[in-house]
Amino acid sequence: MSMLERGATSPTLEKLDSLCTVLDTHPVTLLALTYLLGSEAPESFEQLLEKVGEELRALVEPD
């Protein structure tokens, strides 16, 4: 855990899922927060949710 906190390593998807279970948070929420905090061209929370929603719909809804 300390290696993650220091930025010495990146978590696997399995570790991310475990951390989110403990935090009672969906993994996508943590990924979105990380993106919003670290983005060079930050989007607002609302813009990010809208973009992700549109992209998910495009991937899962048949044409």
From TrEMBL:
InterPro entries: Cro/C1-type_HTH. Residues 2-30 form the HTH cro/C1-type domain. It comes from the Bacteria. This is HTH cro/C1-type domain-containing protein. It comes from Aquipseudomonas alcaligenes.
